[in-house]
Write a structure and sequence with these properties.
Number of domains: 1
Helix content: 25-40%
Largest sheet: 4 strands, mixed
CATH class: Alpha Beta
InterPro entries: BhsA/McbA_stress_biofilm_assoc, Dodecin-like, YdgH-like_sf, YdgH/BhsA/McbA-like_dom
CATH superfamily: Flavin-binding protein dodecin
Pfam families: YdgH_BhsA-like
Order of helices and strands: HEEHEEH
Distance between the termini: 44 Å
CATH architecture: 2-Layer Sandwich
Strand order of the largest sheet: 1-3-4-2
Number of strands: 4
Number of helices: 3
Keywords: Signal
Structural class: alpha+beta
Protein name: Biofilm peroxide resistance protein BsmA
CATH topology: Dodecin subunit-like
Shape: flat
Radius of gyration: 18 Å
């Protein structure tokens, strides 16, 4: 019984690791900015983008930033950055966000 109780406590305390406290995103600039999941609360989603590049993970991140700028996004959040089955080819996926609405900014 004690083992079951301990396992239940560990399981429930582990759930807290997946919750985030909302944070305000940085002020908008001329270029799209990468934000964290906690900063994306309340922002309007514009869509998703992907990029596949040869080189390094940094090259894939730069490709995502360039595509976010081309799409007119204010912010983006990289969801996945992974090397493909081919060496030195990287694949990235990101969510694009627009500027916060005045109501959402006032709540944060």
């Amino acid at each position: 019984m004690r083992t079951l109780y301990l396992a239940l406590m560990l399981l429930l305390s582990g759930c807290a690791a997946f919750t985030t406290t909302p944070q305000a995103p940085p002020p908008p600039t001329q270029h799209a900015q990468e934000i964290s999941r906690a900063q994306s609360v309340g922002l309007p989603k514009l869509g998703t983008i992907t990029a596949t590049t040869r080189g390094s993970p940094d090259d894939a991140q730069r490709a995502i930033a360039a595509k976010a700028n081309q799409a007119g996004a204010v912010y983006y959040q990289i969801l996945m950055l992974d090397e493909t089955t081919l060496p030195s080819f990287w694949y990235a996926t990101a969510i694009l966000y627009g500027a916060p609405s005045t109501g959402a900014a006032a709540q944060q």
